[in-house]
Amino acid sequence: MKLNDRITVLFAGLYFSFACNAIAAGESAFQIENPWVREAPPMASMLAGYLMIKNTTDSVAMLIGVSSPEFRKVEMHRTELVNGLARMARKESIEVPANGVLEFEPGSYHLMLMMPTTPLSTGDTVSFRFDFEGGRSLDVTAPVKRAESSN
Questions:
Q1: DSSP code string of 121-132
Q2: 13, 47, 90, 150: least surrounded by Cβ within 10 Å?
Q3: Dihedral of CA 133/137/138/141: which sign?
């Protein structure tokens, strides 16, 4: 192998290495912590999911969708007070602040999990895919828990 060919192979390898590191760094730009699904009665057609999303980038991120094979439909909602009454408002997208946190918690943002494909109870797990603007996605598994559970 000629010296020029060796140098070309070396630089191609270095380029590939840096590209892989950039992809890995991009994938870790979002972190999902403490995901959980609230247990509901066995025949319930709707459940709720909660979690925390961390955005470690210097740019605002838009969460544009969530899906789960365990539910026929997943929507993002926010509980809002209107004339002193709490109501749920569907959100097509939700902004995750730059270098910030977005919490999905009871009484605020939450996942509305509709039409489970199988009954779920405490100890089961649910798989989610979170889709962000720009083509990024993040897969997460969440345990099913009782609402009063602290862990």
A1: -TT-EEEEEEEE
A2: 150
A3: positive
Residues found in the chain: 151
Which of the four pLDDT bands, split at 50, 70 and 90, describes residue 83? Answer: confident
Average pLDDT rounded to a whole number, residues 39-47: 91
**Per the structure block, which two tokens stand in for 122?**
């405490």
Q: 76-91 burial, b for 16+ CB within 10 Å, e for fewer?
A: bbeeeeeeeeeeeeee
Q: Is 16 helix (H, G, I), strand (E, B) or coil?
A: helix
C-alpha count within 13 angstroms, C-beta hemisphere, residue 109: 16
What is the identity of the amino acid at 144? V
For residue 126, what are the CA distances in angstroms to 6, 12, 49, 138?
49, 41, 10, 14
Distances (CA, A) of 59 to 31, 65, 80, 118, 133: 15, 18, 26, 38, 12
What amino acid occupies position 9?
A: V
Provide the β-strand partners of residue 145: 38
pLDDT tens sequence across 48-82:
999 999 999 999 999 999 999 999 999 999 998 88
Does the domain made of 29-145 have the CATH classification 1.10.10.10? no
pTM score, whole prediction: 0.77
Coil, helix or strand for 50? strand
